[in-house]
Design brief:
This protein has 2 helices and 5 strands. It is α+β, with helices and mostly antiparallel strands and about 90 residues long. The chain has one domain. A 5-stranded antiparallel beta sheet has the order 1-2-3-4-5. Helix 1 runs antiparallel to helix 2.
Length: about 90
């Protein structure tokens, strides 16, 4: 697990799951936490690839924190998992 982004509004973690066997491919994705809504979402597969490509394209423009937060907010609109601290 690696923290990729942390602002007042969002945290983005990259999670890699190594292959467990010969026939299994490595997996992974991104966990995005909306700190104000106190909800999170885990994206993987094609959605994660789209997220990654969008972030890379945005980074090339030298975005502000607000621009990054706006982009991430588009993904957290689907978040339903409440964040629980224990």
């Amino acid at each position: 697990m690696q923290m990729l982004y942390n602002s007042d509004s969002f945290t983005v973690l990259q999670i890699d799951v190594p292959a467990q066997g010969v026939d299994e491919a490595a997996r992974g994705g991104y966990e995005i936490v909306d700190k104000f809504a106190r909800k999170g979402i885990f994206i993987e597969g094609a959605v994660a690839q789209g997220f990654k490509a969008g972030v890379r394209a945005l980074i090339e423009t030298g975005p502000s924190e607000e621009a990054l937060d706006d982009y991430i907010a588009g993904y957290t609109a689907l978040a339903q998992q409440p964040v629980v601290l224990h």
